Amino acid sequence: MKSAVENLQAVRLAIGQAEREAGRKAGSVELVAVSKTFDAEEIRPVLEAGHRVFGENRVQEAQGKWPGLKEAFSGIELHLIGPLQSNKAKEAVALFDVIETVDREKIAAALATEMRKQAKTPRLYVQVNTGLEPQKAGIDPRETAAFVARCREVHGLAIEGLMCIPPVEENPGPHFALLSKLARETGLDKLSMGMSGDYETAIGFGATSVRVGSAIFGQRA
């Protein structure tokens, strides 16, 4: 079985190949290594190999491992890629550098309050529920432009980009195309889309960051 570091190198090569095939500049796609459910000792070799951008799903889980890792390794950029509850906004602003799951008014307001209190400005993405799945977080695609405008005008939030997680059983291409279209309509140039099974497809549709977990760390228990 390959190590996480060997897997990391393979994913980086695949990203480079997908960039070339899409006619995109080398290095234009950021790799977010999704370390959710893996402990600090499993993450450490990937840090030692020089990777610095990671994604976590839960605030509480991240609090248990990342403060120590951030002390041991400089330059870490931590992304929250799982749903955020408003009562966790304080902890999320304190710990994360990027929050990719802004998806409703209550979260926008809570983040704005905490960012002012802490004088911290994590970069923010709006999550879009491109498949309109009732069990999944994210704003209705038809409401995206209005929501981004409210985040900016009402809450004073600088939204950097959009994020989506296509339905598992569907072709992800149309979902990536939709997110790309919504980004153009809202004047955003960052697109967080694509995971272990479809990140190369996402790069063809303009992803600026891909969130890859199991292809690096292996299958989760």
Q: Summarize this, please?
A:
The protein is α/β, with parallel strands linked by helices. Helices cover 43% and strands 17% of the residues. Strands 7-6-5-4-3-2-1-8 form an eight-stranded parallel sheet.
What do you see in this structure?
By secondary structure, the protein is of the alpha/beta class. The protein contains nine helices and eight strands. The chain has helices at residues 4-21, 40-48, 59-72, 89-95, 105-118, 144-153, 173-185, 199-204, 214-217, and strands spanning 30-34, 53-56, 77-80, 98-102, 123-128, 159-164, 190-192, 209-212. The chain has an eight-stranded parallel beta sheet with strand order 7-6-5-4-3-2-1-8. Helix 4 (89-95) packs across helix 5 (105-118). The longest helix is centred in the N-terminal third of the chain and has 18 residues, at 4-21. The protein is globular. The protein starts with a helix and ends with a helix. The model has no long low-confidence stretch (mean pLDDT 97).
